[in-house]
Amino acid sequence: MTVVVGRLLGAAAMALGVVVLVGWAIEDEALTRIVPGSTPMKVNTALCLVALGTACVLRRTGHERLRTVLEVAAALLAVASLVEHLRSRSLGLDELVLDDPFSTGSTPGRMSLGASIALLLAALGMLGLDSLRRAVRVASHVPLLVAGGIGLVGLVGYASALDDLYWHSEETSLAVPTSAGILLLVASALVLAPFEGATAVVLRESPGGRLLRRLLPVVVLVPATFVVPIGRGANAGWFGFDVGVLLFLIGTIAVSLPVLLWTARSIDVAESRARKEAERFSSVLRAATEQPIIGTDVDGVVTVFNVGAERMLGYSADAVVGRERLTLFHDAQELAARAAELGIRPGFEVLVAAARRNQAETREWTYVRRDGGRVPVSLTVTAMRESFGSQPGFMAMAFDLSAQRELERELRRQAHFTGTLVGSAPVGIIATDTTGSCIFVNAKWQELAGLPEEEARGDGWKSALDPRDTERVVSAWSALVRDGSPFAIEYRLRRPDGSRVWVAGRAVPMPGERGEEAGFLGTILDVTQRRAAEAQRERLLAQSRAVLDASTDGILMTDIRGEVLFSNAAMDAFWTDLGLTGAGTIWDRIGQLSRQAVTDEEFDRLFAAVADDPEGEYVGEFTLAASGRSFIGRTAPVRGTNGVLMGRIFSLRETTPERAAARAKDEFVATVSHELRTPLAAIAGYAELLEDDLTTAGTEGRQFLEVVQRNATRLTQLVDDLLLIQQSETASVSIRPTDVEIGDVVRQSVERVEPAANRKSIAIRVDDDGPLVVHADAMRIGQVMDNLLSNAVKFTPEHGTVDVRIGAAGEVCSVEVEDSGPGIPRDERGRLFERFFRSRDAVARSIPGTGLGLVISRRIAEAHGGALELVDRDGAGTTFRLLLPFAGESAQVVPLKPRLRAVDTSVG
Question: What is the pLDDT of residues 869-889, one digit of tens each?
Answer without folding.
Answer: 888 777 788 899 999 998 875
